[in-house]
Amino acid sequence: MAWTKYQLMLAAMMLTTGSINTLSAKWADNFSAPGCHDSPSHTFSHPFLQAVGMFLGELSCLVVFYIMLCHDRRSPEPKINQGQSFNPLLFLPPALCDMTATSIMYVALNMTSASSFQMLRGAVIIFTGLLSVAFLGRRLVASQWIGILITILGLVVVGLADFVSGKRDDTHKLSDVITGDLLIIMAQIIAAVQMVLEEKFVYKHDVHPLRAVGTEGFFGFVILSILLIPMFYIPVGGFSNNPRQVLEDALDAFCQIGHQPMIVLALLGNTVSIAFFNFAGISVTKEISATTRMVLDSLRTVVIWAVSLAVGWEQFHGLQVLGFIILLLGAALYNGLHRPLLAKLPCWTQGEEDSGEREGLLSAGRGSVNEAS
């Protein structure tokens, strides 16, 4: 079936804004500028402030939801289903997970390449699958277990590629690259917990996706903004790149922005793109399919990788190609993208396998609604 112009626009928006989200965050990290009190020029290393900007983008989805709701109520036949009434505090636990995972990932992005950052986020499949079995009572079918094993293999290959490139490149120290990769994997465990919490406590209330994203964005923005105050006084030694070597120096960030206004453009790109990416992702799932959303999400990894190579942020490594292909295969199997091909075989019978993969697709479509970066 041919796509309509609106569906093509949504797919292009999701691919473009999803790519811009990671690339703009990495672009901000690559800037160097003096800080406060005429401190020497140093890189813009402010992951927690960047995370606040990302949650501001998610919060804007709540504004969009209420604008759409007001417009819908004025129409003769309202179409928006608000779902059941719910306690907004239900979103607090998943929002705390989102806040923690996002902050860790922005720290990791300072240490490793944008392409590896995007590829390693595929690890969320492993932990989401295992946690859904343990806490949601879900039964994974054979293809999903195979997908998880293949994803693990892909992560090993990407990690090996980073290990080899870390010895050759001057952009990142080998120790930083390894630490960054491990932090990304750790963040995916927390992101998987977030998805399980949403599945168990939030989605049974049939909350509108934009409202869900916006509510979590509200909690993340408020809590992390408040936490910037104690972070200003917590020393972390050599772990931090800011002159005062504290967990987060927001004042230093604003001083750097004053010396290098282009940083604002990178931060705005991150904030605005996450809002449009969430809207486009939700709309693609609704208007086309969750399968298409998974494919587009994989394609943005290719775009991020291509742009990073083109602007000289990283060098080409064949192992990364192999790792990406393996990760893509693992994600395809886990999300049931092979099912339409198998359905054409005369010996194929739709049964438990078909049901399990459809469940996996739905889970993937819901779980990636508030994906960060």
TrEMBL record:
Topological relation to the membrane, as annotated: Multi-pass membrane protein
Main location: membrane
Gene Ontology cellular component list: membrane; mitochondrion
Ranges that cross the membrane: 48-69, 89-108, 120-138, 145-165, 177-197, 218-240, 260-282, 294-313, 319-337
Assembly and oligomerization: Interacts with SLC25A5.
Biological role stated in the UniProt entry: May play a role as a nucleotide-sugar transporter.
PANTHER family according to UniProt: PTHR13146, SOLUTE CARRIER FAMILY 35 MEMBER F6
Keywords: Membrane, Mitochondrion, Transmembrane, Transmembrane helix, Transport
Family statement: Belongs to the SLC35F solute transporter family.
GO BP terms, alphabetized: negative regulation of mitochondrial outer membrane permeabilization involved in apoptotic signaling pathway; positive regulation of cell population proliferation
Annotated region described as Disordered, given as residue ranges: 352-373
Source organism: Megalops atlanticus (Tarpon)
Domain of life: Eukaryota
Protein's UniProt name: Solute carrier family 35 member F6
An annotated Gene Ontology molecular function: transmembrane transporter activity
Localization: Membrane; Mitochondrion
